[in-house]
Amino acid sequence: MRLTCDVVVIGAGMAGAACALYASRAGLDVVVVDRGPVAGGTTGAGEGNLLVSDKEPGPELELALLSGRLWTGLAGELGDRIEYEPKGGVVVAADPEGLAALERFAAGQRAAGVTAENVGADQLHELEPHLAPGLAGGVRYPQDAQVMPTLAAAHLVRASGARLSTGRTVTGVLRGASGAVRGVRTDHGEIHAPAVVNAAGTWGGEVAALAGVHLPVLPRRGFVLVTEPLPPRVRHKVYAADYVADVASDSATLQTSPVVEGTAAGPVLIGASRERVGFDRSFSLPPVRALAAGATRLFPFLSGVRAMRTYLGFRPYLPDRLPAIGPDPRVPGLLHACGHEGAGIGLATGTGQLIAQVLSGKSPELDLTPFRPERFGEETV
Amino acid sequence: MTDASRPETSPRLAVIGAGPAGLAATLAAARHGLRVTLVDAAPEAGGQFYRQPAAGLGARRPQALHHRWRDWERLRDGLDRHITAGLVVHLRDHHVWCVTRRRSGFTVHALLGPEQERPAEVRADAVLLATGGYEKVLPFPGWTLPGVVTAGGAQAMLKGGLVLPGRTAVVAGTGPLLLPVATGLAAAGAQVAALVDSADPRAFVRRSPALAAQPAKLAEGARHAARLLRHGVPTLVHHTVVEAHGDQRLEAATVAALDTAGRVRPDTRRRIGCDTLAVGHGMLPHTDLAEGLGCRIDGVAVHVDDEQRTDVPGVWAAGEATGVGGAVLALAEGHIAGRSAAARLSGREPDPRGWAGADRARAGLRRFAAAMDDAYAPPAHWAEQVTDDTVVCRCEEVTGGAVRRAVTELGAGDVRTVKLLTRAGMGWCQGRMCGTAVAGLAGCPETAARRPFARPVPLGVLARAGSADDEQ
Amino acid sequence: MNPLKLAQARPGPAFTVTFDGRELVALPGRTVAATLWASGVTSWRTTRGEGRPRGVFCGIGVCYDCLVTVNGRPNQRACVVPVHPGDAIRTQQGTGHDD
């Protein structure tokens, strides 16, 4: 089978789906190819966090704010189908020192365009009646939102009108005499296109290698806990202030300051732990125990609530903790849209929009310099 | 824990499950040098096959509900002897939700009692998984109505609670369980209006060599068939249930004959009044604990070698968990597993000649089970009976149409993605009831799901689970 | 014939429990599900989505279809939990938790 199109997107996860949607809407003919099903990698093992609250001022926060606006737009057409909930986040601090640090962090975010409202200890329980007593206070972030990531990826691909080819593994990147991309080779024939987008998430480094370039995407393992179905008891995305430190951490050891939230379907989600253990899929009690401990500290009523399941995924991260977004100058026609770590669902829309702007020859609305894929050196694989 | 005859230093094996495989393993391991902790969810040993009436009911003749009672007496007496001798500790009402590996040895994490709120942790040098199986049921319109139960469920309620689901029953589906369920219900006073089996009798003829090699099994089947005749139970072979009828509960079932291709012949549909429909399409192994330990799973069963060892050092498995084959096969596998564990944990290379009899029985019974499994296949086109509005996932009320749309419109190609897109399999039972059906509707092979928690566990328990192990 | 007669059962003294406020006779050792079946009750839960009635399905604690509220404690498997004198069994609706 031989196909011809304008753009091949490798990866039918959230990032690939968003690239397909915005590229199609820019008038391009798109084929999405994935070795597994839709959302078969990190997307299907995620929680669906669309967060601005955990990001310090800088390029990632700008991308999160752009993405948030785009999600709001998509919610109008797809909201119910992707379980979009603009529920807002509440970050809490246990003691006055923690609260002071949190409020300083929030002040910086406000200056960068984030809506962040300080919440006194006496008001916390109006926002979240089941929170533990004795907390020092918190900050409310109305821009934080949630989607069901697998539904979001599937419906964005569908809404894009792109051709979806699942169960098809890319085995090579085709390049012309000048070195420019001219498509991909797969285990079911070639797909010809002048542009290829690497949206392979945690496996983005392998796809880059197929094109002969170095992109050091590494996996960070995360467990998520899911409880029995409950009536709505947790209204926002709620987490403790030390989560921000965890997210930004370079430490290889286990970190867990879980985000706790209710879902439209009833269960409470608690996640995620963060560990660097390579692609180890085996069950491990310590991270899951730490998630449970963190969640029950925030919401004591959860002690008696049953965890029905746990699942794990591998969040793709790059050494400087920023994703790779944009054209790769080493291989004309190759673009990258991967390495978003635990924020990929939220950052996908902005990423897709920026990729589409590059593909259609427009100037991207954010500066892509911090995300440039060649920033880790020219080492060829 | 006191141990009169064996030093505290002798190795300890945790056997999980007190059905035929677990009991045979416990007896063999205890007899050959191990201390055994037998961990089981039920208040009495026996598992599903030898499920005992509740003690409070004072049954003086429980054997009236059972087959192979002498095997049970031998197992029960052996267990009692070993407990008295201090070689075996039997932990009842322990619902195991996870087994974890420590630096040396294992911790079995359980929840106590029927409420399953308080934890218990059991440590051992090795574990033997005899977790058994559960019944597979393929969906059809109306199968969620009260009064529709699994065949094994009707039998379990009868054996354990001495109670019937109703007055008039239809027993339907396929597999060797249907016959004893029908005769059991009839003997206990239910009117069994029909035994409906989708198997084609010609399939048994085609597989006759493997079946004829197990004359005892065939004789058992013949005895059940004679009992059916005595109770006047009409048998409809190569038939299937098409629909269950009723509003708040079951009132009738429509059955129909199958054609040679395994499709329903619409002209043969007939309605049978009943208040009970006991239905089953075979069994599935419980593999959750093995999977959580990282054991290799082949298809839906735990992979074991000739000694019943899994590929994880220190973990053995026996019985239905390693492939469904019935109680007698489970006894042979349990015996071999117990002997192997006893030798290896004592630092000896086991001598398989010591269990040659069990080995022969195992080989023959596995061939028999494979032939039975082929012959008792569900109708080839069962999925055609699942209408778009038939509930497939009972917990989350996901319909056949939703599953099909996930595949045709949203790009799902496997059970996991269907689950994520539809919630089929995300409810309380975690896909145990709908996994086979979802795989069938999605057109993909059935594989064992990953369930690190073999049962729901309170977050308060999870928040402390295994913390003592880390301090070692 | 009935199952108690078949097994020549001599149960301990019967006691009463309530199901949605109605008194039922119960035998010692039986599960909640067996007690309800013996009184002709086949459903004691309504589903979260469609509000449909459910009762025993698998009978061995695997399917969780028979969830019921006993003495105010929701989501108990009726086929596993034994009855005790005076138990207040209630039909469980939805998640079983108060909204």
List strands and helices in order, with pairings.
The complex is a heterotrimer of chains A (381), B (472) and C (99).
Chain A: E1 3-4, E2 7-10, H1 14-25, E3 30-33, E4 49-50, H2 59-78, E5 89-93, H3 96-111, E6 117-120, H4 121-127, E7 137-141, E8 145-146, H5 149-160, E9 163-165, E10 170-175, E11 181-186, E12 189-192, E13 195-198, H6 204-210, E14 218-227, E15 237-240, H7 242-248, E16 259-262, E17 268-271, H8 285-298, E18 306-317, E19 324-327, E20 334-338, H9 344-359
Parallel strand pairs in A: 1-12, 2-3, 2-13, 3-9, 5-15, 13-20
Antiparallel strand pairs in A: 4-8, 5-7, 6-7, 10-11, 11-12, 14-17, 14-18, 16-17, 19-20
Helix pairs in contact in A: 1-5, 1-9, 2-9
Chain B: E1 12-16, H1 20-31, E2 35-39, H2 69-84, E3 88-91, E4 94-101, E5 106-112, E6 118-124, E7 126-129, E8 133-135, E9 148-150, H3 151-161, E10 168-173, H4 178-187, E11 191-197, H5 201-206, H6 208-212, H7 215-230, E12 235-237, E13 239-246, E14 250-257, E15 270-273, E16 276-280, E17 283-285, H8 288-292, E18 297-298, E19 301-302, E20 315-317, H9 327-345, H10 356-375, E21 391-393, E22 398-399, H11 400-408, H12 415-422, H13 435-442, E23 457-458, H14 459-462, H15 467-470
Parallel strand pairs in B: 1-2, 1-7, 2-3, 7-20, 9-16, 10-11, 10-16, 11-12
Antiparallel strand pairs in B: 4-5, 5-6, 8-17, 13-14, 14-15, 18-19, 21-22
Helix pairs in contact in B: 1-2, 1-9, 3-4, 4-7, 9-10, 11-12
Chain C: H1 3-6, E1 15-19, E2 22-26, H2 32-38, E3 45-46, E4 53-54, E5 67-70, E6 73-77, E7 88-90, E8 92-93
Parallel strand pairs in C: 1-7, 3-8
Antiparallel strand pairs in C: 1-2, 3-4, 5-6, 5-7
Pfam families (chain C): Fer2_4 (PF13510)
Protein name (chain C): (2Fe-2S)-binding protein
Keywords (chain C): Oxidoreductase
